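EI: anyone free to look at a 440-residue chain?
SC: sure, send it
EI:
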Amino acid sequence: MRRGRHVLGLVVAVAAACALPASAGAAGNQWLGMRVLNQIHQGGENEAPSNTLFAYHDGLAKGGDMIELDVHASKDGQLVAIHDDTVDRTTDGTGEVAGKTLAQLRRLDAAYNFVPGENAVAGRPASAYPYRGVRSGRKKPPAGFDTEDFRIPTLAEVLDAYPDVPVNVEIKGRTQEEKFRVADLLASFLKGAGRSDVIVVSFDQAAIDRFHAAAPRIDVAAGVAGISGFLLGGQPLPSGTKALQIPITYQFGATTLQIVTPEYVAKAHAAGAAVHVWLDKSEENDAVYGTLLDLCVDGVMTAEPTKFEAFLQARRAPRLGGQGGSDRCPAPTRQKPGCRVTVSKLVRTPAGGVTARLERHGDLRGRCTATIAVRSPARRGALALASGRVTVPAGRIAALTPLKLTRAGRATVRGGRALTLTATVRARVAQTRTRPLAAR
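SC: here you go
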């Protein structure tokens, strides 16, 4: 994004038409009170470029309840969202993530090899890559987005962009040393992030144990050793475990074991752990989705959130916040209807106006009304620049509204001087976040 010399202050006052939801939790585990979660794996990597802000926006707009992402540490100690140990598969660069600085990683095109329906695939004709070149500015971004949405983001940027969306963070690293480094950096960061809706996982139980020792108040999911010890070895769950995040089958040495079974799901629930299931592409279908819901799993990590969302709605499955239908599974925590609204985008229109995009998170049963007021950030004599009012209907996750500009607002926006705004969302719980004003 381009930054101008001047900054505007955007104050968004959200008048909640419904009460805020009560705190989630069942027997001390919030993840047992949220089923059934549409967990957008890497943002939904078969539908949008893996682990980009664009993918997270896209997956949530399609009905996702929770972001799943992977973190590595850059050479200069910054936590970045990317799945692989190298940048080769998904970007236009080469080399290990851990060997590059944040500045070097930011320059890469994270959508370079994305092919719809296939994740990241190299060697196709140029026409196969719809977002290749958006990052570099050679191709126009989709409406409401800018070039920054197609690069490798930092974890801080993701949490800042989605203050009310639960996030699943997987510790990555090529070596044990790298995983421990990520675990240490992540523990230090999350202890100061003020977020309780985050859960941390890794295939490597030692990395999880190291993270949990440093940040015992942050929820964790078990690694492979912890899962196998609990399900097969008669061992208790590792300390701090709030969820088992598992595939339908696991390869333990030479043995392929079906682990998403009625017995194992019930065993996890009896021990106070939620069950989140991740799928491969061949398992992304209604038959598998139906089997998983029949087994009372708490969430599904899907690469195709549109397909899974359509299934959940057709089935009227129970959802986060108590909306949806009911089933024979233990009921999720029933919450009062609530309004959790954030500003996700501020877009300059070709005609010289500004459009605000508001997103809801969690409970979608009632409608939420937002009143928006835009003022300059001057300490004295602040100018009223724009205002607007929008209602997000029940069942909808987002709404767009044009803002009515004052004379001062029109002059400021047309001048092109202010491309960064600070959005303060005031409901009964205040959130202050920075949002870019994207040029169309």
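EI: Residues 43 and 56 are 5 Å apart (CA to CA).
SC: 👍
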